[in-house]
Amino acid sequence: MRDLAAHAGELDAADPLAGFRDRFSIREGLIYLDGNSLGCLPKATAGRMQQVIGEQWGEGLITSWLDADWSTMPQRVGDKIAQLIGANEGEVIAADSTSVNIFKALTAAISLRPGRGEILTETTNFPTDAYMMQGIETFSGGRIKARAVPPDDLLDAVDENTAAVLLTHVHYKSAKARDLAETTRRIQQSGALVIWDLSHSTGALELDLNAANADFAVGCGYKFLNGGPGAPAFLFAAQRNHNAEPVLSGWFGHAKPFAFEEDYQPAGGVDRFLCGTPYVLGLAALEVGVDLMLEVDIRHVRTKSNALGDLLIEAMEPLCSEFGFELAGPANSAERGSHIGYAHENAYAMVQALREKDVIADFRTPEIIRFGLTPLYLRHSDILDAVERLTKVCRTRSWNKPEYRTVAAVT
Ligand SMILES: *Cc1c(COP(=O)(O)O)cnc(C)c1O
Hints:
Elements: H1 4-13, E1 24-25, E2 31-32, E3 41-42, H2 43-59, H3 64-67, H4 73-85, E4 92-94, H5 98-112, E5 118-122, H6 127-139, E6 145-149, H7 154-157, E7 162-168, H8 180-188, E8 193-197, E9 216-219, E10 234-237, H9 280-294, H10 298-323, E11 326-327, E12 339-343, H11 347-356, E13 359-360, E14 362-364, E15 368-372, H12 380-396
Parallel strand pairs: 2-13, 5-6, 5-7, 7-8, 8-9
Antiparallel strand pairs: 1-3, 4-10, 9-10, 11-12, 12-15, 14-15
Helix pairs in contact: 2-9, 4-9, 5-6, 10-12
The chain binds pyridoxal-5'-phosphate.
Pyridoxal-5'-phosphate (PLP) is lined by residues 97-99, 126, 128-129, 168, 172, 197, 199-200, 220, 233.
């Protein structure tokens, strides 16, 4: 085997993103391989929160809705996210959770395709996506059917009764990435609308929603955008779909929220997809993460993510043969997003044992160890250190403890 340590050293020395690690608060010694689930804390976030809480809330109070531009934060942060996903100004809002935005996008798509009775996704999709679809079926009294088909059958399952297809761009377990433009094109041939879940893509991969002619998209603020726990999510609606009928017809999506009219009348543009009062504190933290991401050339992020992944796969090879790990996703970096999963029968216990060695990875049921690759704050050497610590866990069987066998409520 070639000298991986020397290889990693060269990659780190030539890394155009190396300076960004210092912009995050990361405890010495910790190797954090879970930034695709909850991103690290940017150092600038605390100061921004201090300002929003101390000055804007503490002193400005209600005048800050205008004086500190609180009321337009969903649009302002949305326009910044638009630059990361290939959307135009006025097509993205930052608000609510991804799940709620999935509901908004699906119901909007249904309103744009009256007479069509089905919404479609693939099996193995992230559960909340399927759950939101099932809720819509129930609420519609059966008029709308929610259907999930195996990933390989999806394109053939779209027909003239399909109102919308909800798909995740990068799969949350396998990291397999779909071809955004080609998949969109194929689905739209049947007249259906396409909703992309970009939770594991935004801030990790180059995205161009408008070049792909996407209809709607949603995504997370707390993963690669480093917006903090429970950060607001985003919703993209292509301009041509701004005539959709909002079902979550709250007052912030009204044409004149402060006219306090009796009847709902949707705002023009993407604003109609807002619902209630903006989450000011969450949006302020998210904006710091998004601003940081906008300083970066996303092509560098993608190149480094691929290199981190290739290095991990190479370093894991001996563990695959000696301890039975199995790569659970594409080996080819062009086909995957920014995380890598390994299947192992003791995956859960191993993730716990790794924490003892200051490596945080993720467990995904039933037997996947998932390593998130976040190019802004991971070094190539971190990957090798993590694999070395995992090797120790395997050699000493430190995972084999009764307390590591009970699966916790949150994984
Ligand atoms: C993380 C993730 C979500 C999260 O949804 P929330 O409503 O923000 O909890 C949704 N979809 C996918 C594909 C995800 O990976």
